[in-house]
Design brief:
mainly alpha, globular, 5 helices, 0% strand
């Protein structure tokens, strides 16, 4: 199933965030982008995921959100395995993980901020995607 967001519409829910992940990895990044821009053939999804989950794990530990800490730790442990779900599938299914409404709202906001930046929809002109 191809994940696509209709043009001109904000990504909605976790399925919309999964679309932003796919779009962000596939767009051309400017030469001044912190990811390497045009000097790299493409962003490496596994490296971007590792950076993001490292950040989220530290953040949720600091906030003492044990549900999100367990969720991120489980994802990080599953990634090296052959059965690991693609990251966009994991994002799309976050609302099925049994998280509290507060934790769901927190991870959705954190992912949206990151993914909109990755896809070039965040703050313009700052020279970085993440």
């Amino acid at each position: 199933m191809a994940l696509r967001r209709p043009a001109g519409r904000q990504a909605e829910g976790f399925a919309g965030l999964a679309n932003l992940w796919v779009e962000g990895l596939s767009r051309a990044h400017d030469p001044g982008c912190g990811c390497g821009g045009l000097f790299m053939p493409a962003l490496q999804a596994d490296m971007v995921e590792e950076d993001l989950t490292d950040y989220l794990l530290a953040r949720y530990r600091q906030l003492a959100d044990e549900d999100l800490v367990r969720l991120i730790e489980a994802r990080k442990a599953a990634v090296p395995g052959a059965a690991a779900r693609r990251f966009e599938g994991w994002i799309a299914g976050l609302d099925q993980e049994g998280l509290s409404p507060e934790s769901l709202k927190r991870i959705e906001a954190d992912l949206r901020t990151f993914l909109e930046s990755l896809g070039g929809q965040g703050q313009q002109g700052i020279g970085i995607c993440y």
